[in-house]
Amino acid sequence: MEIKIFLRLLLKRWWIILLSLVVILVGTIIFTIYQTPIYSTSATYVVSPSPEILNGTSFLSGLSVLGGQPTVANTYASIATSLTVKQKASEALGLNSAQTNDLIVHSRVQNGTNVIEISVEGTNPLLVQAFANKIGDSTIEYIGDLSGVYEMKVLDSAKSPDSPIRPNMKLNLAIGIFLGLVLGGGLAFLTSLNEY
Question: In what order do the strands lie in the sheet with 115-122?
Fold first, then answer.
């Protein structure tokens, strides 16, 4: 019975709900349109023992270090996000500090594998692609100066992203509709309380 009364109150003040919905949707659209688009792309790399380690004379030593390979992949993933590698990649592409600061680098080891995914986010899709690939190249170069027990090779190069990952217009509109209905319903209910 109380639900029927509540629904009747809402139906009497339907225009408040509609007005709230329209205002919040227009605000959501304007907010989304004026947000700077953020693009993201990824490149993947495989970490494997160097061929020199697995030759006939040092086969046993190669086997002994295989157990630590996931740790090695995690170390290489950390190297990819280091300031040193980021600086080398920036210099190789001739980027200024403002362009470099606009780019965010993430890297992770895919679960249960020795595959490293290096992803880059930024406002320029072509720069994001170039920087992701250059971060990989700089990481490989840095690793090459280490012990040489493992090597990192390109599996898939980064591609230029077609569309931004943020803002998400559909998600923002869905949230706007929900908030508009909740706010409108609450206002309609509060303004109807005076009648009872």
Answer: 104-109, 115-122, 39-49, 150-156
Residues 55, 27: one domain?
no
CB proximity list for 151: less than 8 A, separation 6 or greater: 47, 48, 49, 50, 140, 143, 144
| Alpha helices, DSSP H, located in the chain | 2-12, 14-33, 59-66, 69-80, 83-93, 97-101, 125-144, 169-192
Rounded alpha-carbon distances, angstroms, from residue 53 to 49, 50, 66, 103: 7, 5, 10, 36
Asked if residues 23 and 31 have their Cβ atoms less than 8 Å apart, the reply is no
Q: Which residues contact 86 (CB under 8 A, 6 or more apart)?
A: 100, 103, 105, 135, 138
Residue numbers of the domain that contains 31 = 2-35+167-195
Residue whose tokens read 């600061």: 101
Average pLDDT over residues 109-127: 93
**How many independent structural domains does the chain possess?**
2
pLDDT category of residue 54 using cuts at 50, 70 and 90: low
pLDDT digits (tens, 9 = 90+) for 159-193: 999 999 999 889 999 999 999 989 988 888 788 76
